[in-house]
Write a structure and sequence with these properties.
Number of helices: 10
Structural class: alpha/beta
Strand content: 15-25%
Distance between the termini: 28 Å
Shape: globular
CATH architecture of the domain at 6-86 and 101-106 and 198-207 and 214-291: Alpha-Beta Barrel
Mean pLDDT: 95
Strand order of the largest sheet: 9-8-7-4-3-2-1-10-11
């Protein structure tokens, strides 16, 4: 029986031991890394929902959900796949904007065929998709080495692949996908949307990203007030951003000691059923159902 809407800690941004960038998870080999990772999750006594995050992939999620089905991590109510993308738009520091797709577990079988395979990146005369095979081919093409080691090529492909926001919109408009993906943009001034240089020629670009995003990754109280329409003119805000939006925050863990330990202890509390539909509910009630 469902317990209904209750306040719980959610961390929707933790990376897995197979993440391709800044991977600091400890272990003698990948099996040992996974064992330590899952053991650390099983020690959590106050976090009920996790978003397993990987760049352009749900491989880490698929592994961890297999372990959960075998009886591990019974302390966690829900695990969601979170695909981290890099937009082809840079901040003033020259870093691509981080963009996330939080996926309904019910459609994980469609993620590669309907989402990743339809995200494209053109390098010179060839087009590459966002599947593992496509990323390996991109990495080898970029390094100009057809025999480059598969893992090295894959990491290089992930590093080079950038996504156009219009392509994401098109992919998510598919009837089988629509309503099953929550889009989240980071708002850091380093690798988030607020980092786009503030000048007239880029205002529409920045507004467009906010407008299309369902949620904002930020623990900043000023951001939360802004995206709830509480700063300035509400009509002007709605014209730019479309509707009020919840701000959430995660640990962005790339190591065991960071797991579910966000900076400055800024935990995300959500009042909802611990389901994907429960998460969707905070889009309708961003002020009453989220607290950082």
């Amino acid at each position: 029986m469902s317990k209904g809407a209750m306040w719980n800690k959610w961390d929707l941004h933790i990376h897995s031991p197979v993440t391709t960038s800044n991977n600091e998870f400890e272990g003698k080999n990948i099996e040992d890394k996974w064992d330590r990772y899952i053991e650390e999750i099983e020690k959590l006594d106050d976090v009920k929902v996790l978003g397993i995050t990987d760049y352009y992939s749900i491989d880490g999620y698929l592994h961890i959900i297999k372990e959960k089905k075998q009886g591990r991590m019974e302390n966690i109510d829900l695990i969601l796949p979170n695909i981290e993308l890099r937009l082809n738009i840079n901040t003033k520091d020259g870093r691509p904007i981080n963009y996330h797709l939080i996926i309904n577990p019910d459609i994980v079988d469609n993620v590669e065929g309907m989402i990743l395979s339809n995200l494209k990146f053109k390098y010179q005369e060839n087009e590459y998709n966002c599947t593992r095979h496509g990323l390996i081919n991109l990495g080898r093409a970029f390094r100009k080495d057809e025999n480059l080691d598969e893992e090295v090529a894959y990491k290089e492909g992930v590093k080079q692949f950038k996504v156009d926001l219009d392509d994401i919109k098109k992919v998510l408009s598919n009837k089988k996908i629509k309503g099953n993906v929550i889009t989240v943009v980071a708002n850091s001034n380093k690798d988030g949307n607020s980092g786009i240089q503030y000048e007239d020629s880029l205002q529409a670009t920045r507004d467009n990203i906010y407008y299309f995003s369902d949620m904002i990754f930020s623990s900043n109280s000023k951001d939360r007030a802004y995206f709830l329409g509480k700063k300035g003119n509400i009509e002007d805000y709605l014209r730019k951003c479309g509707r009020k939006k919840p701000c959430i925050h995660g640990s962005d863990a790339h190591s065991l000691d960071k797991l579910c330990k966000p900076d400055e202890d800024r935990y995300t509390w959500i009042k909802a059923e611990t389901t994907f539909n429960g998460l969707k509910q905070i889009l309708n009630e961003p002020e009453d159902r989220v607290f950082i």
